[in-house]
Specification:
Subcellular location (chains A, B, C, D): Cytoplasm
GO biological process, one term (chains A, B, C, D): L-arginine biosynthetic process
Distance between the termini of chain A: 32 Å
Function (chains A, B, C, D): Catalyzes the NADPH-dependent reduction of N-acetyl-5-glutamyl phosphate to yield N-acetyl-L-glutamate 5-semialdehyde.
Largest sheet of chain A: 7 strands, mixed
Shape of chain A: globular
Catalytic activity (chains A, B, C, D): N-acetyl-L-glutamate 5-semialdehyde + phosphate + NADP(+) = N-acetyl-L-glutamyl 5-phosphate + NADPH + H(+)
Largest interface: A-B, 54 and 55 residues
Strand content of chain A: 15-25%
Protein name (chains A, B, C, D): N-acetyl-gamma-glutamyl-phosphate reductase
Oligomer: homotetramer
């Protein structure tokens, strides 16, 4: 098992989770600009790997592993994956292979569309009652979802699949700063983010917008309009997605909760809270659980669902490990926990 | 000038602002359970008042002042105000006199409706082109708005007043913890809130929901449906309200920005950011400014407006001082600043 | 295995760690005032225990377990332990049995001294070259150290044991807020602690002062003067202890580092950082590792050691599990990790 | 009045304070790499300056102002000041002119020593009973102290001046992240600093060490050994300095407090807290006040003093404005406040 991009946040989280995975041996850990440095300089929390040195992210370093995780900037995965052979399980935490529509890729990311891989959101309900999980069994290329799309899609999919709401959704999602990665930009300095919240990518310009729409269309069986606003909050990890849509049916909270319970009660990582409880991101930190609650606002005529997750875990690296388990026919929960590190 | 409720956050902020006000002399500072304690035990940042002792919140302590600010728990203002005489300017930072509809009061707060006072949101555009400010001139009773309604109402009012959007809005507002007051509750402990975001009052159950609807109806000239979700974020101060509504007209961002500029450019405390800039709560901290931006999301068919404010300043105590200035015919900006303490 | 005090922070962390322990089955989970409530209302992060209800903290609830962890307010452990039988392994996370000197107990805690139990700091070097660990093998009563004493004692003990420094130490330790527990006090509100640091218990009045002195005396073989100042920092978890003492020998940093390496390199949870690296609490969060660095300041004539730990993990609950492993003759690292959850 | 370095944190704070100063008109605002950008892109909180554009930091831009504040990286002040003429009041917030000893400069900063200017710590007690203030009256060149030296020096000077303690001090000071400036470095990212504390510059290697020693020597009348450890805490602003020294006299807390009260009660910005109260940085934010408390730890044989300040205000920009007032013979408190923005 190798991790490319091991000096970043997603790479570090992959290694953290893989260190606890009983079926995995950690091989190459590679980086781009940080190649040659001790891993400990960038990931001091990974004590058992304190003597590792970051190799260069190149096919020759990654070759010879059964599983290769890519945690690279956008646009770097395709070329590397092409060199890794079809039998290697390549799991891409980047965006390169998430979108199926070349026009969406072109519009939101620019450059040539690399194609699409099986999409790593196992729990997503599909039209017809199956799950996205089925596409991942035995797969050797998997595109891990974006952190926001995981929360927003799982929060809204059951309602759309059941026809409870109009395909016209509003998502406002608060995120911790690790979602923006580790490259040092002035607006991500601690001095700037502590004590302050800010919106960005407003008006549908965030790259996760088409990915949310793509997922919801798959669940709804029809195109879904998505108004998405991400908000940066002063915390390192965590996404809290507040999602709503106009009611399309006469339902109350009890009925809606039953739909969600039917959809998710068998899912080991999706945790519908008891009625009256609302998710906090803190309870999910470090875990692969997504916490969820849903209600009906009769006055506003809307269903409101709120999902919390750890953006680096269930939102990225945990999902990647979960997908690996499925692809390799291991028990899906192997090496993953629903227990958060709180408070 | 007297402040009742001086040991709480709103009371402390009132005193902070009044210490900088050139036309004000600070008389009685009172509290409920904290009466008898040194003010410094609760407000150590108010160095010039370090030798003050908290008196009891009772009419005899407040009598004899031209202006009395009330920063009390809900339900305590009516009886106190009744004892203060009609010539005293009483400015209530609580909710008791905000709602005009007794049924709304009954539903959201319970108990008897105390009535309504002139509503202290000076900049709110009214049908016909006037402002809420006019009602405040010479008033001797003023109800200061809730912190969320200030942000949400000012963010959406110009669009509704101009008929740009349908009267069916979604507001998701992130708030710092001081909005929940100073009474020690387990979920407000630093250990709980740091590193975590959580939604609460979801589904229209938060008490500020009818207040937002009331304000927007006044601007729109018609009833407005409001879906409101507050989110608690790990910061002491600040509200960032992400507000959207379906477009009712063919407009682009430029046109919408012009409507907002026309509405607010003459307002000293409302700061429409340059195109492309989005508000951060950090830039407003300690100031009486509300920062605002608006855009059109053509794909989603929605107008999105984001407002940032300091919930204790423009959201409460700053608004109270601004209203005092208007009521007393002082220049509206006296003693107030648009300069935030950042970072 | 039972946990008494399961609604608090130490109790929650015990359960988090025990859920990952392969040799443990979680039996009774009890509380005082919160008895009868769902565990999930207080520990929403412990998803696998979401259906548990808090029993009452009473001997009959705790009876029948091989191991009982006590995470109670001071003064409650003695009576409870007396009812549990000598063959039950009772591990007390409270202070009741830490101090050996009744006068120290009386002075710092008041009330009658309950006695002392084997002290659960396995790595502490004792005069003669043994470790505190030896006293824990087969023990059936163990007193888990305070969070500050763990960091301060391990940071300074090798230098004192080797005679490198005078027995006259200064410790200034920054702590997250969970160290103060979960009872809601105004000064622990998020609004108060975020964005602010404060000293407390200054001048040797903090209860951990005599415990640090007791530990260091055991390592030094002589009485040690301790100046200890705790500082509350705006973070939920983590202790960073900056410890120094006057040099008693002509040594340089290399020599001092060798003494520490000799003392700790075989210890699985003590991580002496590479030269030039300094600990961050973030790298230890959720783990049982203590990160350490030491240097010589020749100008000031002092040795300076800095230790970082997670106050709830290695500082409390992790130490408790580590002690359980030793007492039960399990491999000491069973169920414990050195991998932090960062960032 | 001009500010060079107006896109950084110190520059922004200078402008914030100067906007509130009744005797000042803000002229040129300049920057290095950010020249040409709107000031609002870097200082969105300075609403009244929202239409300003950053000029280039060059003598021709700064010429023609009576007062020029320099908030530049180390090493840039000397050349610029040389071009500004002897009648211009130049106040340097950088380190270039703080140290009087060329060897110390060489050792801690490297490069050629530019010399020293009158040192801008007005309240510092000098041997003989005078204050550092006297040197600043009418001065036209002033070196503003470093943020740590302000807190540590004022915390210890009265005890040293009165001979209460040995000239052998230990300072451990917790700081917010703005002290590290605005240049984006990975370890200053919000993701890294939130939830974590870390020591740096341990062992006397921090550049403020010789500056503290220089100040204390001036108060003590003898050389003072300084062990200084800075700690980075997860907050934007604030320094909390815990300072101690061995007692040299038989004194108790009451006697020590009297010495401090005598030293500081007449100082408008130094606030000795009532006995039993300890400083929090939160209470000082945005203000020019330094809060202070002192006690005797008889067991440890040490005096312990704790000081809190806002590192950007009293620690940098507020001190600069205070010095300007003195130099220009304005009332020293003009435009400055002791009221913090809390919580």
């Amino acid at each position: 098992m190798a991790v490319a991009g091991a000096s970043g946040y997603a790479g570090g989280e992959l290694l953290r989770l893989l260190l606890a995975h009983p079926e995995v041996e950690i091989g190459a850990v590679t980086a781009g600009g940080n190649a040659g440095a001790p891993l400990a300089a960038h990931q001091p929390h990974l004590v058992p790997l304190a003597d590792r040195v970051l190799a260069d992210t190149a096919a020759e370093q990654l070759a010879g592993h059964d599983v290769v995780f890519l945690a690279l900037p956008h646009g770097h995965s395709a070329a590397l994956a092409a060199e890794l052979g079809p039998d290697v399980l390549v799991i891409d935490c980047g965006a390169d292979f998430r979108l199926t529509d070349p026009d969406s890729w072109q519009r939101y990311y620019g450059g040539e569309h690399a194609g699409s891989w099986p999409y790593g959101l196992p729990e997503l309900p599909l039209v017809g009652g199956t799950r996205q999980r089925d596409e991942l069994r035995g797969a050797r290329r998997i595109a891990v979802p974006g952190c926001y799309p995981t929360a927003a899609s799982l929060a809204l999919a059951p309602a759309l699949a059941a026809g409870l709401v109009e395909p016209d959704v509003v998502v406002v999602a608060v995120s911790g700063t690790t979602g923006a990665g580790r490259s040092p930009k002035p607006h991500l300095l601690g001095s700037e983010v502590m004590g302050s919240a800010s919106a960005y990518g407003v008006g549908g310009t965030h790259r996760h917008t088409p990915e949310i729409a793509q997922n919801l269309a798959v669940s709804a069986g029809t195109a879904v309009r998505v108004s998405f606003t991400p908000v940066l909050a002063p915390m390192p990890r965590g996404i809290l997605a507040t999602c709503s849509a106009p009611l399309a049916a006469e339902v109350d909270t009890t009925a809606v909760r039953k739909v969600y319970a039917d959809a998710y009660d068998a899912e080991p990582f999706l945790h519908l809270l008891p009625e009256g409880g609302w998710p906090t991101t803190g309870a999910t930190l470090g875990s692969n659980a997504l916490h969820l609650q849903v209600t009906v606002d009769a006055d506003a005529g809307r269903l409101v669902a709120v999902a919390a997750e750890d953006n680096l875990a269930k939102g990225t690296a945990g999902a990647a490990v979960q997908c690996m388990n499925i692809a390799l026919d291991l028990p899906e929960t192997t090496g993953l926990s629903t227990v958060g590190v709180a408070p």
